[in-house]
Automatic annotation (TrEMBL):
Residues passing through the membrane, by range: none
InterPro entries (UniProt xref): AAA+_ATPase, AAA_lid_NorR, CheY-like_superfamily, P-loop_NTPase, Sig_transdc_resp-reg_receiver, Sigma_54_int, Sigma_54_int_dom_ATP-bd_2
GO CC aspect terms: cytoplasm
SUPFAM superfamilies linked to this entry: CheY-like, P-loop containing nucleoside triphosphate hydrolases
PANTHER family, per the entry: TRANSCRIPTIONAL REGULATORY PROTEIN
Entry keyword annotation includes ATP-binding: yes
Protein's recorded name: Response regulator
Organism for this UniProt entry: Flagellimonas ochracea
Matches recorded under SMART domains: AAA, REC
Domain Response regulatory: start-end pairs: 3-119
Length: 387
């Protein structure tokens, strides 16, 4: 049931609004406030799905109520109620975040349509927030070691900016996870996150993949095609395994970073892009620079912020937390009750040499859950977690 608050100092109009809303839809629960101050008291105590608010009121006017509410509960849509002399103010409230405005006396059809649209929008906003939380949980960094806490701290500081980040570390440590977290916590989180595995794309195709191509640019280019940079416009592009990128592609990426422009393969026409660039590699790029495999100027463009993701062997204290996380997640995926691990099993797993890092640990946990007993024992680990 949608909760609607009507803030209106003219009792006759307030009664009309309440009557219209309650008679129109039995799913509307309508509350009343006779002035702006009473309205603010109600808004602080309860959550509403919509507010209908008069503009001209004693004690606290509608504009003040709108501004105050947007600071504490920005997701609540406001429909402003305006008299003939308030129309300019009503239009200005749209700039302050109001959903819409209606004039006095209210037109029945316009009022009901606007209310329905505002309530639907609120539901979409809530659903989107829930979805974002689910997505964020999928990319949650698990661990309480000093190394992981340091990474979390850097992410909190860097995510709200557009600073480029170079994420380094061995395979399987969670570099992609860091990139997702940076995006999810950034102002660009509602825009695309486009991932490119530079190692998986043949060197002759990497430029087309990143920047697109025009028809006839090469034999198989049968039509114009946008690249990953265009797809990521207003959002984030993640260049995974950037150390495997060809030198010619590196030159084009450098230009994109310097000028915020790209050109498709087969044309010199510039296309402006607004993209945040995150990159990751398991290679020592300084060594690659010395050997002539990586451009030093591109390295300095990418490495504004450096995040080093540690190997699992360097944060063994996090292994029990990771095992519990994976056990819960695997059980959820399989629709079964999560299995626990005995203390001896955990201790044994903590002592292993995790050359495949977190990715390897996840695979081992899944194997133990499938093949082990109701509680995974030390014996199960010895039998099935072959190293």
């Amino acid at each position: 049931m949608s909760k609607i608050l009507v803030i209106e100092d003219e009792s006759a109009i307030r009664r009309v609004l309440v009557k219209i809303l309650t008679e129109e839809n039995d799913k509307y629960q309508v509350h009343e406030a006779e002035d702006g101050l009473k309205g603010m008291e109600a808004l602080k105590k309860e959550d509403f799905d919509l507010v209908l608010c008069d503009i001209k009121m004693p004690k606290m006017d509608g504009v003040e109520v709108l501004e105050a509410t947007k600071k504490i509960k920005p997701e609540i849509p406001f429909i402003m109620i305006s008299g003939h002399g308030d129309l300019d103010t009503a239009v200005n409230t749209m700039r302050l975040g109001a959903f819409d405005y209606i004039s006095k006396p209210p037109d029945l059809n316009r009022l009901l349509t606007t209310v329905r649209n505002a309530v639907d929008r609120k539901e979409l906003v809530v659903e989107n927030k829930i979805l974002k939380k689910k997505v964020s949980k999928n990319y949650e960094m698990i661990g309480e070691s000093a190394e992981i806490e340091n990474i979390k701290e850097i992410i909190e500081k860097v995510a709200p900016t557009d600073a480029r980040v170079l994420i380094t570390g061995p395979n399987g440590t969670g570099k992609e996870l860091v990139a997702h977290w940076l995006h999810q916590k950034s102002p660009r989180s509602s825009a695309p996150f486009i991932e490119v595995n530079c190692a998986a794309i043949p060197s002759e195709l990497i430029e087309s993949e990143l920047f697109g191509h025009v028809k006839g640019a090469f034999t198989s280019a049968v039509k114009d095609r946008a690249g990953k940079f265009e797809a990521a416009n207003k959002g984030t592009i993640f260049l995974d395994e950037v150390g495997d990128m060809s030198l010619s592609a590196q030159a084009k990426v450098l230009r994109a970073l310097q000028e915020n422009k790209i050109s498709r393969v087969g044309t010199d026409k510039d296309i402006k892009v607004d993209v945040r660039v995150l990159a990751a590699t398991n290679k020592n790029l300084k060594k690659e620079i010395e050997e002539g495999n990586f451009r030093e100027d591109l390295y300095h463009r990418l490495a504004v912020i450096l995040i080093q993701v540690p190997a699992l062997n360097d944060r063994r204290d996090d292994i029990p937390l990771l095992i519990d996380h994976f056990a819960q997640k695997i059980a959820s995926e399989q629709g079964s009750a999560p299995k626990s691990f005995s203390k001896k099993a955990l201790k044994l797993l903590q002592g292993y040499d995790w050359t495949g890092n977190v990715r390897e640990l996840r695979n081992v946990v899944e194997r133990l859950i499938i093949l082990g007993g109701q509680e995974v024992s030390e014996e199960d680990v010895k039998l099935f977690a072959s190293k």
